[in-house]
Design goal:
The protein is built from 3 helices and 8 strands, in the order βαβαββαββββ. By secondary structure, the protein is α/β, with parallel strands linked by helices. It starts with a strand and ends with a strand.
């Protein structure tokens, strides 16, 4: 196990993403942070608080569960556990910043975009991630990144909010 970020570095990475999101959304009249369950939800909560502290604007918040949108849903995985999707605002015409903790192949983001579109046609979709670990399988790139790290395909990147660290196993 290798620690990539300790608590101060993790908090600094979140602050960096929040700064860039706040600056990019400054002139956008209606936008939302949408966390991808499960790892993107705690990051989206932290980003919403940080953006509010910086700008006085509290972004809309929502969460999506991509279970039914996974491209490997019927390939022999364990019985899927469905989570809640909560988009308590009108998606059509709203700018969406999808949020996830770790970006890997891009398949999770593709699934999340599909789910968001089922709720309406957003003005745009951007992507904010804490860790970009590379190895993309789809042409998906983050707009806002906390840290980019080099990993092997078999590595697992874990963001542990309780301990306050990011590790590679």
């Amino acid at each position: 196990m290798t620690r990539v970020l300790d608590r101060p570095a993790l908090l600094a990475a979140v602050d960096g993403v929040a700064d860039r999101v706040a600056a990019a959304m400054r002139d956008v009249p209606r936008w939302a942070l949408v966390g991808i369950r499960t790892g993107g939800v705690p990051l989206a909560d932290r980003l919403a608080e940080a953006v509010h502290a910086r700008t006085g604007h509290r972004p809309l918040r929502g969460d999506v569960d991509i279970t039914l949108y996974r491209d490997d849903l019927y390939t022999g995985l364990e019985k899927p556990v469905l989570g809640d999707t909560d988009l308590p605002f009108e998606v059509s015409g709203c700018g969406i910043v999808l949020v996830d903790d770790v970006l890997f192949t891009g398949r999770t983001v593709r699934a999340a975009m599909g789910e968001v579109w089922d709720f309406g046609r957003p003005a745009f979709i951007r992507l904010a991630v804490l860790v970009d670990r590379g190895h993309r399988e789809l042409p998906i790139a983050p707009d806002f990144v906390g840290v980019t790290i080099a990993t092997a395909l078999h590595d697992k990147v874990v963001v542990d909010w309780a301990v306050g660290e990011v590790v590679v196993r």
